[in-house]
């Protein structure tokens, strides 16, 4: 029996992209509100749906690693979103650009480099095991979003993350959802 989901969401699309990608991959019928119960917060939603689709890891160890990588990407959003949403209106353009670049290069980039190292260590092209997980969605969505000006991350510097982005976007239902609400 195919489940139908209805997502309640705001007028902008932000973090809701990952739950929509999980729904699309699972082939679920859905529209923008959950039918049997209401579940809030994008992380709780995509984790719940990810378990239903089977993309949260296959073992307890893999599930813990998926949670770790997802949490790390979410923490990066917590650094970036207030910066672009709030500081931009409080600082002069020069101060804003200086603050943004400082956060990007001193906080965000070192963490993203750890993600590159984790992908290189696994050698499958995915964060855990040999199958795509929701952690891989995070990387695919986050890399363009965090690559301010297109010069923070390069293919040469982070080949595994760029390759992962390409793998995720090669899946038509995921690319379609990504393109539907372009973030960059």
UniProtKB/TrEMBL annotation:
Q: Give any single GO term for biological process.
A: glutathione metabolic process
Lineage top rank: taxon: Eukaryota
Q: What is this protein called?
A: glutathione transferase
Q: Which Pfam families match?
A: GST_C_3
Question: What UniProt keywords apply to this chain's record, in alphabetical order?
Answer: Transferase
Q: Does the keyword Transferase apply?
A: yes
The enzyme's E.C. designation: 2.5.1.18
Q: Which InterPro entries match?
A: Glutathione-S-Trfase_C-like, Glutathione-S-Trfase_C_sf, GST_C, GST_superfamily, Thioredoxin-like_sf
């Amino acid at each position: 029996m195919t489940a139908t989901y209805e997502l309640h969401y705001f007028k902008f699309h932000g973090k809701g992209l990952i739950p929509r990608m999980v729904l699309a991959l699972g082939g679920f019928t859905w529209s923008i509100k959950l039918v049997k119960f209401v579940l809030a917060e994008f992380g709780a939603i995509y984790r719940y749906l990810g378990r239903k689709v089977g993309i949260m890891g296959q073992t307890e160890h893999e599930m813990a690693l998926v949670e770790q990588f997802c949490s790390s990407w979410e923490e990066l959003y917590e650094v970036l979103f207030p910066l672009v949403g709030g500081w931009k209106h409080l600082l002069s353009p020069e101060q804003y650009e200086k603050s943004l670049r400082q956060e990007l290069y001193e906080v965000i980039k070192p963490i993203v480099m750890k993600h590159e190292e984790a992908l290189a260590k696994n050698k499958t092209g995915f964060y855990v095991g040999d199958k795509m997980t929701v952690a891989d969605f995070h990387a695919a969505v986050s890399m363009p979003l965090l690559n301010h000006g297109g010069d923070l991350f390069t293919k040469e510097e982070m080949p595994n993350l760029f390759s992962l982005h390409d793998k995720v976007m090669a899946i038509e239902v995921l690319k379609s959802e990504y393109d539907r609400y372009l973030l960059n």
